[in-house]
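Predict structure. Chain length: 119.
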Amino acid sequence: VSVAFWCWLAAAIMLAALGLLLALNQASLPVFLRGAGALLAVAGLALGYLAGRTRTGHTGFRRAAVGLALALVVVLAMFILVGGGGALWVLPMILTLTGAVLIMRPSAQEWLPSEETPT
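Prediction complete.
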């Protein structure tokens, strides 16, 4: 769980920084790229928040973090293929996917408290 947290935290910091650099760039970029940069920055902050809540043992936040992580992997893969600067986006994508895989392993599920089914 700790390794997954640190992978997600590093990815969140990189996504927020790269997204802000893209959104606030002084070059003449299309509005789509600026919007995508702002969206990636917000998604990076959300991933960092969800990773922190997951580390404290909240299973609901774990599911949300995995869902966001997998959605980010798809968005980053499309961004690498369509947009420029693919090498910059590969590392956050790999860290995000690694964190999602590690948090779903059986050893991580044993570490987290069991889920209570509502009656």
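Summary: The chain has a mean pLDDT of 83.
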